[in-house]
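Record 1 of the preview.
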Amino acid sequence: MHVPDGFINAPVSAAAGVVAAGAIAVSLRGARRELGGAPGISTAPGSGAERTAPLAGLVAAFIFAVQMLNFPVAAGTSGHLLGGALAAILVGPYTGVLCVSVVLLMQGVLFADGGLTALGVNISDMAITTTVVAYAVFRVLVKLLPRGRRSVPIAAFVAALLSVPAAAVVFTLIYAVGGTTDVSIGKVATAMIGVHVLIGLGEAAITALTVGAVVAVRPDLVYGARGLAQPLKLRIGGELVDAPAAAAFATPAPSAGPASRPRHPHRAFWITGLVTSLFLAGFASFYASASPDGLEKVAHDKGIDDKERKHASEDSPLAGYGVKDITDARLSGGLAGVIGVGVTVVAGTGVFWALRRRGGGSAAAGPAAVPDQETV
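->
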């Protein structure tokens, strides 16, 4: 759903840029709390607070990689992950807005994907709308569903599903105000919402599977799972009682012997996530659908793209997700994907690390995440 230059007129594009800038400023403040760690968790090296910035950078890189995997949704139409729901649930809504914004900036500047004058429109639509809608729906659902981390993937599925057509509605409203072609808004709305409901199903599946996989192995890393764990129980005098809060957050000392737990399990998780992102962008992307995505198809069919302008970065060495002067399509696309993942993870981690440091390790805006505990 990357909006190119020329679809929206200059005044509305500028207004969307102001909205996006304001939302990013608010998100920077909120992300400092989200990246600061959870209450009761130390901010010392190796603690929960220390790993949040690299995790947020990894989420941005993963979204970049998965966005290269267009999947077919209808005859001659494809879709791809938007990522707002995934980012919000994994690292928090404020940090999620920043994650998707970093991805959009990298795509626009390096890969000529999404117009530069339309960057504010794309951030408002793909980053802000999807994140806000998805996280609001997610929070409502986790309160209604049975308490526990098993409810997280279910809530994630529904939240992601609704976030995509919501973004299509917002684009339609922006186009109604600032569209550069004379096309019936009713036709645009019907076509955009219809195809993006289908794309939303793919988004929901990817989001639920990813969130479910992370919750299964590292629930402490999932922002949306905080506060959903069962309380730690202790048997005292033959009766089960709630453990003191400090016990729930205590980190067991590593035991000796081959069965001891890894000293830095989050490091192994981060490496696994990065390798997965590199594989998706560098290899799996070659097999992605070549059909136009939902917006491209609607724009072509309805004439929205009649005044599309040349991208300012179309001469970039990575324009079109290929490396210039490399004729082998598989190698060119794969190398571009690997470069994109690398640049995104470095840029994202740098931004989030600076925010975490500036935030001074303040408490996150929510209860800490801990795995479900069995009776002791």
